[in-house]
Records
---
Amino acid sequence: MKLKVYADRMSQPSRAVLIFCKVNGIDFQEVKVDISKRQQLSPEYKEINPMGQVPTIVDGRFKLFESHAILIYLACVFPGVPDHWYPADLFRRARINSVLDWHHSNLRRGCFTYVINMVLGPALGLRLDPQAAAEAEKLLSSSLSKIESVWLKGNGKFLLGGLQPSIADLSLVCEIMQLEVLDDKDRVRILAPHKKVQQWIENTKIATSPYFDEVHNVLFKAKARYQEQRLKSWSSSGTSLKSKM
Amino acid sequence: MKLKVYADRMSQPSRAVLIFCKVNGIDFQEVKVDISKRQQLSPEYKEINPMGQVPTIVDGRFKLFESHAILIYLACVFPGVPDHWYPADLFRRARINSVLDWHHSNLRRGCFTYVINMVLGPALGLRLDPQAAAEAEKLLSSSLSKIESVWLKGNGKFLLGGLQPSIADLSLVCEIMQLEVLDDKDRVRILAPHKKVQQWIENTKIATSPYFDEVHNVLFKAKARYQEQRLKSWSSSGTSLKSKM
């Protein structure tokens, strides 16, 4: 039975798992779980993942959720996945685990909370909260600084000085890509100070081409939609300003 | 060269690593990093862990931080650690990874944020924030419910139906133990609805005895200190109330 990946490409951990499968030639079936329609909370889906989150994989009778656990499982179980994704060497593996653990309470928390409170909240039934966004931006920016000064220290193209990407590169870069839905001025303000991070994102895109862009396409379309909405809202506020003058 | 564990026993991930080492007879040297004195932010410590957090291990020339990564490393590298802590079986291992990943954004975030905003904040130079505590309590309580209905489903003594503990049991139980510093009425209100969780905490204590209590002793002492402060503050507010009557 083919591996099933339950995912929504608007979710960054979903994208990481999908790109990993495609890059490594893993034969799988993608099953769309539409978060904007709350499908992850349906009783049918909760039979697969009682936490009501994406992604989840079903491999035969084995169900697994949490994207890092999934990436590690796929790297270890599927034959032919190159060693650099999750090295057998225990020291290199331990350092990748360290990045992945750090990610949860730092980059992920900052980035996710910022984007939800700046743009994506209403699509998920949440209100935008500028104060929460401001707090999250601090954590996001300090996390990007840490990535640059700690994980990207040295001359490697990837985290931990790697010449090829690991699952940590994929997970963290997919998280940062979520910033695409922001207004450009916000995204540029946040990323501009971090030149090494920008180069690393580019390196990860290239190393996972063409699947990186293919899987992110839905995000690029969302970016265009949000940008259009912003232009309309500015233009209508301009009109109302004029009409008051 | 002996393994060094840089830790503060008031930190729950530090305690998990220390208990793991002791239970498994790993020969190590504990190096106290006093968080209340900001020692984790000193330039010397940042040479070891640039993120300025505890715990960190130094094993020969190898430095590692993030407690889950450390526990996995120790379980894989040190001979004689029983398999149940982090099974070689890829399916069981994957499910333990899933619990550990879930922990970060759920139980840990809820519990840590609650305790910091209810009690421990001032010791770390932060102010108490009742609104943040109230928000955190929701996440904490829903996480305890999920542990009970998902991870403790069935009749196992430990998470995932285990008959013996894994590193996930140790990590999550050490987190919940942080609630000891709360006023008893708050701790009881939070834990009372979760009978299976209470039994599982007890099972984990017994399975790691006598080291569990030994390593938690500093927390029990802190609990007594905070309780004394509360009594004093109530008694003086009672006096001032009386004097106003």
---
Amino acid sequence: MNTREDLPGIVGNGVYFVRWTLISLLMGTVCGLVGTAFGFGVAYSQQFFRENPFMLFLMPVSGILIVLVHKALDQVGNKGTNLILESISSTEQIRFSTLPCIFISTILSHLTGASAGKEGAALQIGGCIGNTLGGLFHMDERDKKVAIMSGMSGCFGAIFGTPLAASMFGMEVISVGVAYYAALVPCVFSAFIGSFISSRLGLHGEAFTILHVPEFSLKPAALIVLLALLGAFVSVCFCILLHEVQKLYKAKLQNVYARILTASALFIGLSLVFGREYCGAGFNLVEAAMEGNVPYEAFLLKMLFTAVALGGGFKGGEIVPTLAVGASMGAAFGNLLGFEPSLCAACGMLALFAGVTNCPVATIFMGFELFGFEGMKYFALAVSVSFALSGYYGLYSSQKFTYSKTRTEFINRKAH
Amino acid sequence: MNTREDLPGIVGNGVYFVRWTLISLLMGTVCGLVGTAFGFGVAYSQQFFRENPFMLFLMPVSGILIVLVHKALDQVGNKGTNLILESISSTEQIRFSTLPCIFISTILSHLTGASAGKEGAALQIGGCIGNTLGGLFHMDERDKKVAIMSGMSGCFGAIFGTPLAASMFGMEVISVGVAYYAALVPCVFSAFIGSFISSRLGLHGEAFTILHVPEFSLKPAALIVLLALLGAFVSVCFCILLHEVQKLYKAKLQNVYARILTASALFIGLSLVFGREYCGAGFNLVEAAMEGNVPYEAFLLKMLFTAVALGGGFKGGEIVPTLAVGASMGAAFGNLLGFEPSLCAACGMLALFAGVTNCPVATIFMGFELFGFEGMKYFALAVSVSFALSGYYGLYSSQKFTYSKTRTEFINRKAH
């Protein structure tokens, strides 16, 4: 070891650190402000929808508006979160118009109760901000990728109030098995600043209480593993459902207006039949599930509502609906077996999130941030088992599996 | 997406899961039992040393015995934890005799107060168990690597009582930037079972209390970042010191007996001059640091004591001494600036651990398991900054840096 020849390396690290600290401060601030505006926008739209039941029937109008916004901003065929992932793993470019497009479309979707999230949208908004700042600072392609990850983490942290999960998610989601640690400081700084700003501005993150966490022993551990097996299976089904419904819409209806109008009609019909609990992002279901109060079929219905809305062109992302499906599934499992529905709701939620995003570390972090540290051992079991068994399915078809889930080998394949 | 063609994949995952669940149950049980025996062995040796001050002067005897054990088991020149890392990243083979060798040598080291850990030894013992079970089950090379990681996690979890950190450490330490997720279930299961068994048998993990965690805001965050900068610098210094002292011993003294006798003489001399606080693994220093009660120079002295003992041939590993150095450094920093010495001790400890092991996720998990979740934001800052700035230095020269710490690029170099 020659320590002298490495001095430029250490100086280089210092330069890297100062540079990215400054950039992340700016990134976190911009993402925090934009994310807060977006978060409040979504929250008000959701509230407006709840207070004005007729809004559901305006879904065709919001649908048409969403298409018009996409046409006006030349974003028809926008690949959503996949575009952001590809901008990091390949040479795909993000255009700034993605930001207003997803911002407005998500709010329109929530105004009329579509079953859609907001975190996927936040990842896209953050990615755009990162890309734009990268351009402003004349970054080369590699640094711009770090900036995009930092932006994703910043906005995710601002909107969801889980900065640690947000930091890790941006690095972990692109290539399964590879952690882009070059983005560690930029992601951590931007997520914490983003979340700090949004909470100071009054946008509070989610947090739930597990009613009772039993002492760790063989029986509850085995039951949680069983739940995670189910979670892996449901994850795969949910991914297939989302992708197949979208394909079906595209195959049967070439015209984007026809597609979103059909989706609106179907969604309104479903809501009239099954009720409005399945409209919106789904935190209502998570809350009910944490108290063990959801019907057995809730997770299936939430999957269906989400596939119908997102597949037809409504916007916002799949993350919160995924959490709602998982929590409902977990509570149903717990109620069925008479075993801790509240803990099962939490573990089901994490199992499903790990299964569809293939990000086990971010999911475990999210578990601690949403539910506290007490259930740690159960969370770790639920996440690792569901991750291992959900195969190469995922929400994002642009996600890469760089390493095998079952063998220590390089595979470099894409998600289903 | 053709779901039918993927059925063998899902069935394959099921077979993988059942197979590895059974193997990990066995692995966790064996590692839990052996780890507990080892843990109690070390604990009794440490107690015996404390109660019998003359033991310090028997260091030359324990030194000679260590060399004899190595000769008898044909383990002279054993590369320690590096051997285990190489057995995973290359075709290097582990022999079973490593297990009794490191088991006995570590206990002999602790009986006479050498400044050495026990977790490095646990990693080696666990790796041997994994390798042996892999052989028993006729595993191919790739599966044997997973078995070795699972064994490492199992023993680490049993001895340290931090199963989540233990699970991740085994997967994260080999190649920085690559998470060997194929080992996720085998590592999680074996670490949790190992830790469950050891705690049932009365071997309790470590846990510390941070006296006060201030509300997260700019000033404390900036101070923790400053501490992490210092932590990165001390990490690099500690790695260089350990490696250079070992080289110096080897260069000046060809004979292994002469080397360990010299180390004993130096160590006894240092203990007579500076006191016995720096003998042993160092949890006494961590405890004192958590209350802000360590001298400013403690971290330097602990570095020196450890380099003198380990470089000369005493055994046990570097992990607990690293934690002691980090906690003492953190408390000194806090006392100097009049800012939360207890929180600084915790963050300093994590910063140093992240800096020397290059395992940020395992380090953050360890933070939660040792100190609880309240200080999460500070832990994340300390770990990410120290990781980013500690360069390509590390405790283990066989550790690979697969991806750059500062650029999104493949570099595939070894640690200094």
